[in-house]
Design a protein that fits this description.
Blueprint lengths: L28 E6 L4 E6 L11 E6 L1 E3 L3 E3 L6 E7 L4 E7 L9 E4 L2 E8 L5 E5 L5 H4 L16 H4 L7 E4 L11 H5 L3 E6 L22 E5 L1 H9 L2 E5 L1 H9 L1 E2 L2 E2 L2 E5 L14 E5 L6 H10 L1 H13 L10 E5 L1
Parallel strand pairs: 1-19, 3-12, 3-14, 4-11, 14-18
Antiparallel strand pairs: 1-2, 5-6, 6-7, 7-10, 8-9, 9-10, 12-13, 13-17, 15-16, 18-19
Helix pairs in contact: 6-7
Amino acid sequence: MSLLTSDYDYTLPDELIARYPTEKRDGSRMLIVHRATGTLEHAAFRDLPHFLTADDLAVLNNARVIPARVFSDDGRIELLVLDPRPDGDWQCMVKPGRKMRVGDTVTVGGCVGEVRAISEDGTRMIRFAEVPDLEKVGKLPLPPYFGREAEESDNERYQTVYATAPGAVAAPTAGLHFTPELLSRLPHCFVTLHVGAGTFRGVHTDDLTGHIMHSEKFSLTQEVTDRINAAKSVFAVGTTTVRVLESCAQDGILQATEDETQIFIHPPYQFQVVDKLLTNFHLPQSTLIMLVAAFAGRELILEAYAKAVEERYRFYSYGDCMLLTE
């Protein structure tokens, strides 16, 4: 167990970053990590049902990515809209920040907004008297490591096939591998966590305990809560699903909740709900790789990442995945 940020680092060749998805959603590779024995196994994602049992209930995040990347009409200001409230108050990350001080204005889609406040994290609260239509003026906010602009195909492939709850600015990427056909073969239910821009932020403190986690809105309904509490084994699809479930657990029992979470899961952490986990490969020194390390052990995860690099797995949002099982 380590609380040093540097102990969650690894070296990734640039060419292993997947900048485009596989031809077919279920065409990815899947590295199986057997936690009990510490062994690794190579498989294809489409073989996932063979590694699950009738007792496993798959829990997935049905968040839908909104076209949150917006430019001012004069092209001088870029906004990442984190929370576009219907009343016209938008919480945004802005570039360049020096041109967006309190009282400054920005015009988006012919609608004028004024900066009303600046938060400690640098985000701006911008008030629009007339609310811009994001569907018309916005673009899909691809992760920065893609190194490219969003293309027409991303509008489909950077959404899960079950994305029904708009509000995220990043996709719950472990779910991108699923097809409707494969999902129909698994007992499953949905939670919602609107993935925020903080998912891309690294840990910038030497010690994990000094890191302040970003906040994300989530919802866990009573119907889903009852199903999960009754399940013999919970199979979480993605770290965002894990964050919802572990945020709502009290003494191992889930409570239906609609709230925000800032839970930071890292070693040592005792999981209350999740038994198996499907996840993509995450950035070095990120909160996500720390969550995975808490679930399977830091040494085993770093070994798995090293093997994935050696075997030329594809990394990050459009990349391959790993299944952490017993």
